[in-house]
Amino acid sequence: MIRLKEVIDRQKILIRSLRQQLTQKHVDLDAMQQQATRLAKLNASLRRKHFVSRQQADQLREEKLTLETQLNTKDQQIKQMEEHIHHSNNNSNNTESSICIDMSKSLIAELISPETPPPQLTEEQLVKQLNAEGKMIIDGRNPNRPHFTLQELRNVLIERNELKTRLIEVEEELSVYKRAGYVIIYYYYHHYC
Could you list the residue ranges that cross the membrane (predicted)? Predict the structure, then answer.
């Protein structure tokens, strides 16, 4: 009987320790499930953020390409205008037409680099320039006369400068998103993997 009582006592102690282990395992399992749920939510959140930042980066790349294309088009238009002015200057025999073309060239130079001082003019040239300011003096019979106004040229140059500015802004924003994407991925892998 004493032996049976000892066996029962040992089994009670064993059952008690097994229950404690089982309870501890349940607590550990619950904690792991909560951690797995948190990690799944964090993973989903990071994937959404990564997807959004990737979409924004793709949009910025497309916008950058569009802006670069527009900028190249404007640069080509400016080059064509300059070539046309140069060609008109070489082929023109009319002095008033060449004065107008020289004024257009100097205007282009001033618009491109406003820091440069204007060229020194004689009194006669200055009077002609002041009388012709804002006007195009063109020989109507000259087949090589410019087919654009000074205002159009100004508008093209202003638009080109705006496009360059926007392109720089887009490139900066794109680099910010690239760095942010790297930081998110770096943070995720070093803290949860």
Answer: none
